[in-house]
Specification:
- With 164 residues, the chain is mainly α.
- It folds into 2 domains: 38 residues; 109 residues.
- 74% of the residues lie in helices and 0% in strands.
- The protein has 6 helices and no strands.
- The longest helix has 27 residues.
């Protein structure tokens, strides 16, 4: 069999197998077209179309990490650190309140993301800001919170046709 005929047969078989796999996964025709067009361009490996947006995934990961850090910081820092030397119970309750409220607002915003993007972006932004105020001296946490706020606003402004 000539090399060109083998290449044509392998591309067609590969395209058919990819289409069957895409149908089994329940992907849309647009995703099947993207994977088939990648195959027809001579790429040998299958690159699946990303489900959901990468921006949404980044918000989920960064928001989840910040929420976990805020919750852990509220519990460990609020109850295990001796606050008497630094300002007493007022600082302790400020720390606990701001970090717990930030964590709860972040989780609520991430949970409501599929229902209302603008509400989710507002809750995520407010939660990130509350936690960043309490931990401003760490520099890394406020920077991560600022990135999360920008990402959530950008995500909320996207059209909702692609989903989360």
């Amino acid at each position: 069999m000539p090399a060109l005929a083998r290449l044509t047969v392998s591309v067609k078989i590969g395209a058919n197998l990819r289409q069957i796999a895409a149908d089994a996964q329940g992907s849309s025709s647009r995703e099947r077209f993207q994977s088939l067009s990648l195959c027809s361009m001579g790429q040998s490996s299958y690159i699946p179309a990303v489900r959901g947006s990468r921006l949404g995934t980044g918000i989920l990961v960064l928001g989840g990490l910040l929420a976990a850090a805020y919750l852990l910081g509220a519990i460990l820092g609020g109850f295990l650190i001796d606050w008497e030397d630094d300002g007493g119970d007022n600082d302790r309750w400020f720390w606990i309140l701001f970090l717990l409220a930030g964590a709860l607002l972040l989780v609520a915003g991430l949970y409501l993301a599929n229902r209302s993007r603008s509400l989710a972006a507002g809750l995520v932004s407010l939660g990130a800001l509350l936690g960043a105020v309490a931990t401003f001296w760490t520099i890394v946490v406020p920077l991560a919170a600022a990135v999360l706020i920008v990402l959530s606003v950008l995500w909320a402004r996207q059209p909702t046709a692609t989903g989360y």
